[in-house]
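note to self: dont lose this again. the chain is below, predicted strucutre after it. 354 aa total, dont forget to put it in the shared folder this time
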Amino acid sequence: MNSRQRVLSALARQGYDRIPVHHEGTPEVNTLLKQHFGITDDLELAVRLGDDLRNVAGSYIGPERRHFPDGSVEGLWGERYNDIPYGDGIGTYPEAVYLPFAEIDDAAQLKDYPFPSADWYDFSSIPAQCTKYADYAIVFGGAGSLDFMNSIARCRGVEKVLYDVATEEPVYQLLVEQRFQFFYDIAERALQAANGQIAILHCGEDLGTQRGPIISMRSFNRLFAPYYQRYFELAHRYGAKSMMHVCGSARFFIPRLIELGLDILDVVQVAAEGMELGGLKRDFGRDLNFCGSMCVQTILPFGTREDVIRETRYRMELFAQGGLILGPTHAIQVFTPLENILAMYRTAGSLVGN
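---
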């Protein structure tokens, strides 16, 4: 089987030659892995790890993203990001350092705001990208697509967005609508250009904390559900599966997400409340596939090599006929032992070389 056949067969519960895998690591982790293999290219790293997914994207042709004296870089929505060190400088994460909507309290203030447009992207290279990755399960989008709470918080502030959700603030609802229309439009253009070659349309929203849901079902249904339903329907219209990145304790929302048309729940943060993998498969495995599940909070960083092997084999046995794309529950973090990362992919049968 090639990667595309392997993933599609797994999603159809029709078995496979080996369990499909997907890799995600922080830049520091990926650099460590490339040094181990003696390579410098990210795509070569994906080949070495046996990653069965490949992302395609349009080319950005919009307004130039500005750079500022403090080192920050402008995002699509006018926010600014800087690389913030953590762990005594062992790594960095891009964090929002300027929030353009933080003080907006009237939707009229956004009347002439330069919101991003699908016209800022050129999709003419999508067919060639699909040809290049014809043997892989091709993905469009990512965890930041839609992502109404998490990403708007990077432009408005976390506390303000949670308050916005609770009060159904008109400014926030306008930002949600603008965000949906942008990501829907670019996804539709990419799907049209790909002519059936995109296997998975990806989006995201962190709906859970470590212990339970962030928001109520009432808020989810009133503010977000119709948008996700339309996005999932868009994927299905072009023959793709819908995949949603959801961190935290997401069990509360899973039945509703299935109703809306979700095919693949991404990350599957097993250390969170109610997210034990066997229980999820038992209760939802008939209607839902999973991606991830190898914990970046416990087993991968703090387990032994034998722990990682055991947990990987458990997943291979639990999903022997399909239903899981094996991978980490988020980007593998910088303090994770190299031998544990390699043990996961080696046990899965995807690792090329040592």
